Amino acid sequence: MIEDERDLDALRGWAKSTQDGGARIWMQLNHPGRQANPLATRRRPVAPSAVGLTIPGVPAPRALDDAEIEEIIDRFAVAARVAESAGFDGVQIHGAHGYLVSQFLSPSANQRTDRWGGDPERRMRFALEV
Questions:
Q1: Is 55 a catalytic residue?
Q2: What's phi and psi for 80, nearest 5 deg?
Q3: Helix axes 120-129, 66-86, angle to 10 degrees
Q4: What's the predicted TM-score (pTM) here?
C-alpha cells in the first residue's frame, strides 16, 4: 500500500535500479474491492454494492458510501504522486480482473442508483475520476 511517502526512498531505489538497467518502469495501482482478503486486511471487503463473489466462505462486501468512494479516488491520486516523486515513468490503473475499477463498471457488481451506478455513464464515473 502506498498511502504517503514513508517508503519513498525504497521506491526511488526500485525505480532507479530499473532505469539504470535501461528499462522504463511504471507502477500499477489497484484496489481489490470485494476481492480483498479479509484474513490479510482484518476488515470486511468493500465494493460499489454489497454483492458478494460466488466463492463459498468469502464474505459479501460492504457497499461503499459516497465519502469513502471519494477517499479511495484521492488515495489513487496520492499513490500516483508518490510514484512520480520516486521517479517512476508513469502509473497504470489496473481496471481488469474483477478489481474495484472493474466492479464499478460492471452492472452485476455495481447495483447503485446514485451518481456512481446505474447507466453506463454513471458506472464509468469512478474510473474517470481515478
A1: no
A2: -65, -40
A3: 40
A4: 0.93
